[in-house]
Each structure stands twice: as structure tokens, then as C-alpha cells.
Design brief:
By secondary structure, this protein is α+β, with helices and mostly antiparallel strands. Helix content is 29%, strand content 21%.
Length: 120
């Protein structure tokens, strides 16, 4: 199992202009990719279970934060955009990945966990 303390960021829809423009979503995505690469995170071709831990909003009450800790995160960002961002950061060519399971959960702070041998 591999765990890194990097807040997950979805892959933004990018245009040609993003090569020189400084849109905040693209800057956050590029910083995320750099952090994942620095951590040395690796994805296997198959059998991985990726768990994205998304931080709860600071505006939530202590009671709601306690209730939601570890529960499924069922709002934006979409799970496929989170997975795309992680695969792009970890792999030069991600077409070799053929079996992966992705989950997103509420957490106190952001993080990414990769459990090998658990996809199904």
C-alpha cells in the first residue's frame, strides 16, 4: 500500500492556450502532478485500488465532520477526472493500465492511497 499526503486535484479540460496562459485550475493540476512525481508514486498495470481522500469543507460543523468522516464523497470532482490526473502524473503513457478500481472518501485532510491487488 502506498499513501501520499497530496490533496487530489481533477484533470482540467485543457486547450492550446493553456500552454502559455495561467488559469488557476491548470496551475493547481500542474502543481499536483509535480507533487505526485516528487513522492515517487507508482501505479501498476492491473489490480490497483486507488482511494482519494478529499478534505471536508472548513464551513462544516464539528458534528457533520464527525458524521461524514470516511463516508463516500458523492459530489464534484468526478472520480474519472481524479483518476486521469493521477495516471497522467504517474505514467508517461497510461494506455497500459487495464484494471483499476477508484474510490473517493471524505477525510480530514487530502491524500491518495494505492492498494495493490484489490481491484475488482
Amino acid at each position: 500500500m502506498t499513501v501520499i499526503s497530496v490533496e487530489p486535484v481533477p484533470k482540467p479540460r485543457m486547450t492550446q492556450r493553456d500552454k502559455w496562459a495561467r488559469r488557476p485550475a491548470v496551475l493547481r493540476y500542474r502543481e499536483f502532478c509535480d507533487q505526485v512525481r516528487e513522492a515517487g508514486m507508482q501505479l501498476p498495470e492491473s489490480g490497483a485500488h486507488i482511494v482519494f481522500h478529499l478534505p471536508m469543507p472548513a464551513s462544516w460543523s464539528k458534528k457533520r465532520r464527525t458524521e461524514m468522516l470516511g463516508k463516500p464523497h458523492q459530489q464534484k470532482p468526478d472520480v474519472d477526472n481524479l483518476a486521469k490526473a493521477l495516471m497522467d502524473a504517474c505514467l508517461a503513457e497510461d494506455q497500459g493500465v487495464w484494471d483499476v478500481r477508484v474510490t473517493k472518501l471524505w477525510a480530514v485532510s487530502g491524500g491518495i492511497e494505492i492498494r495493490e491487488g484489490e481491484a475488482a
